[in-house]
Amino acid sequence: MSSTASKLDPDRQLPSSGQRSSCYHKGLNYLTNSPKKADRCSSRTKNGKFPDTTNTPLRNLALCRKPPGSVSPAKRQINEVKETKTTVNCVTFPLPGEGPEQQLLKPNEWSYCDYFWADKKDPQGTTHVTGFEVLLQKQLKGKQLQKEMAEFIHERIKIEEEYAKNLSKLSLSPLAAQEEGTLGEAWTQLKKSLHDEAEVHLKFSNKLHTEVEKPLLTFRCDNFKKDLKKYDHHIADLRKQLASRFAGVEKARKALADRQKDLEVKTQQLEIKLSNKTEEDIKKARRKSTQAGDDLMRSLDLYNQTQSKWFEEMVTTSMELEKLEVERVEWIQQHLRQYTTLRHETDMFNQSTVEPVDQLLQNVDPAKDRELWVKENKTGEVRPVDLDI
């Protein structure tokens, strides 16, 4: 869709009533019967003016006109205007396969500004949701999912804190505290490593809070929803204006149809002499019909200008929402990567708490432990001998 193509000059001068002819009414006749093609009028000459028939006798003009039904089917088919556009919810679109193929505004990017022009029915199928409302819902849903991610990290933090607390408590357990020797040293170091590991997990939970959870919670907290409402109201107001302009076009179209019908009836009465209407009466009817045609063209201009404005604002605002979504995704990506970094660091620190335990376990020597234990707990080196009588 091209905004340039839909702009019309609001100050353009329409031809005076003296420059209209019955050809003008014939040219506008299909406008009243074809709501999708109200932007055509074939009665103008190459210089943009209408032929001057002010001084042409009305009876001569009337004699040139054939009564309804006198046109042959073949000729009537030739005169029919092929529909190439359709209007849905007051927005005008080209029919499939008609006119030049539209090019995407941002090819190969799947940009918001290319895919959300039409309305669609809500899940219940009762009302229509505009494409812009779909984009707004995406923003609100993204905000909610971001909040849920923060809640998930918060639960992870609680687990880490509880785990650290239990590790620290377990490290103080008196179980197997009387183990001796090299094995006893390894066992003592193992219990101490639990305390060290508890400290690592406690630091991990604190960093998760400050470097992951909090940024996710605070991202776009201030005025974000207010800004979305401004976008919503702005585009919605333009759609209301567009609906009002389209209603004006339809009203003007009906008024033109009524004026043309009145002129047709009076002309036919003049042809068959069923009425004593003067030529002045028919001139008056023609002027009214011409004025109705002018009103229709003005209404059409206003509609196209309003649709052009809506189109431009839709492109600008949808690309702004697209930018906001990219920022949101990149922000979450950045802080989830920080989570994995902290997790790797935690693993490394945990490994460092286990390394002393590994070393002591490698040094466990049952023979040495036996020696130490025997030296400390021996009851005597002299062995028993046989009893003599």
From TrEMBL:
<dbReference type="Pfam" id="PF00611">
    <property type="entry name" value="FCH"/>
</dbReference>
<dbReference type="GO" id="GO:0005886">
    <property type="term" value="C:plasma membrane"/>
</dbReference>
<protein>
    <submittedName>
        <fullName>Growth arrest-specific 7a</fullName>
    </submittedName>
</protein>
<dbReference type="Pfam" id="PF16623">
    <property type="entry name" value="WW_FCH_linker"/>
</dbReference>
<feature type="domain" description="F-BAR">
    <location>
        <begin position="108"/>
        <end position="369"/>
    </location>
</feature>
<dbReference type="InterPro" id="IPR027267">
    <property type="entry name" value="AH/BAR_dom_sf"/>
</dbReference>
<dbReference type="GO" id="GO:0072583">
    <property type="term" value="P:clathrin-dependent endocytosis"/>
</dbReference>
<feature type="region of interest" description="Disordered">
    <location>
        <begin position="1"/>
        <end position="57"/>
    </location>
</feature>
<dbReference type="GO" id="GO:0043009">
    <property type="term" value="P:chordate embryonic development"/>
</dbReference>
<dbReference type="GO" id="GO:0005905">
    <property type="term" value="C:clathrin-coated pit"/>
</dbReference>
<keyword id="KW-0175">Coiled coil</keyword>
<dbReference type="GO" id="GO:0048268">
    <property type="term" value="P:clathrin coat assembly"/>
</dbReference>
<dbReference type="InterPro" id="IPR031160">
    <property type="entry name" value="F_BAR_dom"/>
</dbReference>
<dbReference type="GO" id="GO:0048812">
    <property type="term" value="P:neuron projection morphogenesis"/>
</dbReference>
<dbReference type="InterPro" id="IPR037957">
    <property type="entry name" value="GAS7_F-BAR"/>
</dbReference>
<feature type="coiled-coil region">
    <location>
        <begin position="221"/>
        <end position="280"/>
    </location>
</feature>
<dbReference type="InterPro" id="IPR001060">
    <property type="entry name" value="FCH_dom"/>
</dbReference>
<dbReference type="GO" id="GO:0030136">
    <property type="term" value="C:clathrin-coated vesicle"/>
</dbReference>
